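I had to read the description of the data format several times before I understood it. The format is easy to grasp once an entry is in front of the reader. For illustration, here is how one protein appears when written out as sequence plus structure tokens:
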Amino acid sequence: MKTTFSVAALVAAASAQQYNITSKGFQLVLTSDDGAINSAVSACHTGAALESLCLSKTSDPSKPSPFDTFYFNTTSTSEPPVNHTELGAEGILTWFLPVNDYGNIPSSAYFYYDSSTDSATPILTTGTPVDVQRMSFTDKDELILQGYIDWTANPPKYAGPYGLNRWYACQTYYAGYQYTNLVWGLGAGKPENPTCLKVDVKRVFV
């Protein structure tokens, strides 16, 4: 176990050389238009050094932790898109995993894809994975992804940059854990998961 986290610490240290500018801590707050959801987000255990982004105010079978503090890491060259500064600079969502004898190990979010469905689940893992998901916060502190291609055009063409907000709160099943998680819809339509409810995600600094 010590070897595992020693390696994780080295990977985290190496990745920190790239995404080495850390924001102040914040909560992620989810809200829906109908008022059914108004909840902060927790980092919920889904495996060894793996956490999903679950809603704090739920009665899920896998009990969520109290809300957590997250961070946003960027590089020294991160800048908002020219002429679209409202989209914000891209970076990665980070969180610190508390580990006995090792202190807090930095983790960052990637998207877990299941090819049998039309949504992706953000998962936090130690260090910076190769497939880390880049995100951004708008000038209104809303969490988005940025796009550059118009996939509705025939043929598809460059159309960016533009902001995408395809966040949902959905009941998920991952590695035996059941949570109401923050989920990203793959495509313009609502995910097929019948429990999904459209949400906005905003950071609130602590």
